[in-house]
Design a protein that fits this description.
This protein is mostly helical. It is built from 2 helices and 2 strands; from the N terminus they run ββαα. It folds into 2 domains: 38 residues, no CATH class; 54 residues.
Length: 98
Amino acid sequence: MRLVRRPAESCMVHGRGGQLGIRLNPLINLRLTLSTLFHPVVVAEMKEKIAIVDNKTEILRNENLAKEKALAKEQVSTVQRTACNMHGEPPPKRGTAR
């Protein structure tokens, strides 16, 4: 372990004043970070946020699908009207397929 002289108010280990601050090993820092990230409360909150995002994604996916269906239906009716106009036929009534 390497000791580094630090100001009295910045002791990294205990969070209180001291003459020597101990520089933690990067692996220890990683372990502390991971233990914080995978704390049960944090994991539960992340699962809840993921569920909310999944719900929003599903809503947007359904809205997009409905818009795509409406667009496809409109494109079919436009093609039918154009074809009828080219042949001099009256356009079909809305809601009926040829």
